[in-house]
Amino acid sequence: MTDLLPQAADIRAGFGTLIAATAMVWAGRQLVGRRAAPEICVLAGWGALCLVLTAWAVALPFTLYTPMAACFLFALAGCRHQGQVEGGLWRLALLAVPFWLVMLPAEPSQVDTWLNLLPNQAFLVDHAVLPRDGGPPHHSLLPGAPYNTQFAAFAACLVTGGLAGNALGLFGIVLLGAAALKLARAAAGRDGADDPLPLPWWACAAGLLLAAPLNPGFVPRIFLAGYGEAPLAVALMFAVALSADLLAAARRGSSVRASVSALALVLAALVNTKQSSPGLMLPLGACLLGLGLACPGVARRRWCALVGAGFAPSALLYAAWRWFVRRHFVAGELEMLPRAEWHLGALPQIIAAMLQAVGRQPLLFLLLGAVPLLALHQARHRPWQRGTVVLALVGLLVLLFPAFLVFTYVAHFPLSWAVRAHSFARYMSQLSLAAILALVPVARPHAAAWLARRPIRFKRRLAALAVAGVVLLPVAAMRVLRFDLAPPQPLLRSFARRAGPYLAAGQTVALIVPGDVDDAVASMLRGVLLFTPPRQKGLSFRTELTADDAALDDAAAAGATRALVTCSGAGLGRLPPGTAGLLSRDGGHWHPVAVWLYDRPLTKIHFSAMMPHAPFCGSDAPPTL
Question: What's the pLDDT score for residue 5?
Answer without folding.
Answer: 86
